[in-house]
Amino acid sequence: MSRAEMPPGWAESLLRLVLKENDRETVSGDLLEEYRETIVPRRGRRSSHLWYIRQTAGFVLRAVWPWALLFSGQFLARTAYDWAVPTHDYHVRAEFSTEFGVTTLLVTALWMSWRSGSVVAGTLMTAIASQLAAIVSVSGASLMLALWPDPAGHLRQAIAESGGIEEVYLLPFMMIVPALIIGTVGGAIGSLSRRLLRFGS
To answer: Crossing angle, helix 45-84 and helix 154-161, to 10 degrees?
Structure first.
């Protein structure tokens, strides 16, 4: 098989990571066959690579979007609550949102590594979910800012007291750091649990 007939190696590896273990050979094999026999002859190498990357991105998106929406939904709910009901003590709110966020990332990693049987899948997919959630969070916060009436300046004051507008726009993207750490831990637990279950049966 010539190199021109092969899709980008990183995209093929990513596809295999995101697929369920039982579907890995059939789905990746069918996609590779379509790529080689139909897409490459019709579109050429560069356009075919883009086609394969789009297919891979679709599989990744379908795997992580529920977790990304759950993670971003919590962030937006906390942000809206801080703006609507300001306080001088955010400790309880911060503790709850942190625990919820960590749990969401951990469950994401456990699920992804369990279904794929790979620790790397848990780490990588959790990181991708966190950044997809960041995009949704920032977009949602921007929409709230645009629609939130603030004739007396109470909203600006509430934003300043709850951490500032920088936190709203930067914090979601900074979540990639804990996502990588928690994703690795959760991925190891999920993958090991799957292997132990198989060994026991």
So the answer is: 100
Q: What is the DSSP string of 144-181?
A: HHHHS--TTSHHHHHHHHTT-HHHHHHHHHHTHHHHHH
What confidence score (pLDDT) does residue 3 get? 53
Domain-by-domain residue ranges, the chain? 60-200
Give me the sign of the Cα torsion angle 145, 78, 111, 126.
Answer: positive
Q: Among all chains, which residue has been given the structure tokens 């990746």? A: 28
CB burial readout 123-152, b (16+ within 10 A) else e: bbbbbbbbbbbbebbbebbeebeeeeeeee
State percent of the chain over pLDDT 70. 97
Structure confidence at residue 1 (pLDDT):
45
Write 28-34 long-range contacts (CB < 8 A, 24+).
31/55, 32/7
For 127-143, the DSSP string reads HHHHHHHHHHHHHHHHH
Q: What is the pLDDT of residues 121-161, one digit of tens each?
A: 999 999 999 999 999 999 999 999 999 988 888 889 989 88
Query: Which residues fall within 8 angstroms of residue 41, CB to CB, at 6 or more apart?
Result: none
Instruction: Please say whether the beta carbons of 102 and 84 come within 8 A.
Output: no
Cα(121)–Cα(115) distance, integer angstroms: 9
Cβ atoms of 127 and 180 within 8 Å: the answer is yes
pTM: 0.89
The single residue listed with the structure tokens 């790397």 is 120
